Amino acid sequence: MRNALELNDARKRYGPVTALDGVDLTVAEGETVALLGPNGAGKSTLLAVALGLLPATSGRATLLGLPPADALRAGRVGVLPQEAGLLDDVRVRELVAAVAAMYDRPPPLAATLRAAGITDLAERRVGRLSGGQRQRVRFALALAGGPELLVLDEPTAGLDVDGRRALWHEVNSRAGTTVFATHYLAEADAYADRVVLLARGRVVADGPVDAIKALVGGGEIRFDSAAVRGEADLARLRALPGVRGVHAGNGTVALRTADSDATLRALFAAFDDVRGVRVEGVDLESAFVSLTAGPDLVEGAR
Ligand SMILES: Nc1ncnc2c1ncn2[C@@H]1O[C@H](COP(=O)(O)OP(=O)(O)OP(=O)(O)O)[C@@H](O)[C@H]1O
């Protein structure tokens, strides 16, 4: 199968800031891939470099087997950038039609307006739209050329529940490839086949959501206790078998552990006052925090 997007050892520096630190990424045709990472991880930079909109310091990018500029010029890639100004004085229908007219084989205008949920806004002037409505128009512009590859940078920012549902319905019913950056773990979990986790300009995990959760492994034990009071108690908790992390506050303690059974047995032996014990599997949020937390964990996850 051909690749929709490829990055080889992509590096990007802004002066002293290393935004991309040697990223290799391959997205096969037909995949829906979520790019996740904390603020400043390099998600927007990665997408802009992959699209050829930002020159890389070094490395190589291809889209659909072509140099990015060629793929974009041919209308085979639809882009929703994180920040994109829109012409204010035109009507929505005129704007989407003008963008569609730049491509060889655009879908019917009515279909694009419907797919972006803006049929009712078609005669409105762009400058009078709300933030969420403008985001829907940006999505329509990404769809306007009938692209094989959609690249969306935080596509649901500013969208209400209906807008988010409509956008994901459209993304998931398309036959093509979609790569999207998001802060919403639930969106990655629900709509992506695969999650690429970025931290400090590097890919720290890459795989199906379940595999990412399994990377962190184990689970979390929560309990209430008045006996955990100071640093010495925290140190005793950290020393329990399987424990990888400890968080305590307001009489509640959370232990991240690689082996819930062993940790629990030792916990009851070591502490008298342990009440209300809850054991949970790792969710994507915990995996995200663990994998993007610090250099030690990041190295361990690769
Ligand atoms: N034009 C620029 N000049 C200088 N530094 C920049 C520029 N653009 C981005 N950076 C820096 O590069 C790093 C990566 O930024 P980027 O916008 O790619 O991250 P991000 O993961 O998309 O963040 P967010 O989730 O906040 O949108 C950050 O440290 C940012 O401050």
From TrEMBL:
Q: Does the keyword Transport apply?
A: yes
List the signal peptide residues. none
Q: How does it sit in the membrane?
A: Peripheral membrane protein
Give the main localization category. Answer: membrane
Recorded GO MF terms: ATP binding
Sorted UniProt keywords: Antibiotic resistance, ATP-binding, Nucleotide-binding, Transport
In terms of InterPro entries, this protein maps to: AAA+_ATPase, ABC_transporter-like_ATP-bd, ABC_transporter-like_CS, ABC_transporter_ATP-binding, P-loop_NTPase
Q: Where is the ABC transporter domain?
A: 5-225
Q: Where in the cell is it found?
A: Cell membrane
Name listed for the protein in its UniProt record: ABC transporter ATP-binding protein YbhF
Recorded source organism is: Nonomuraea coxensis DSM 45129
Give the encoding gene's name: ybhF2
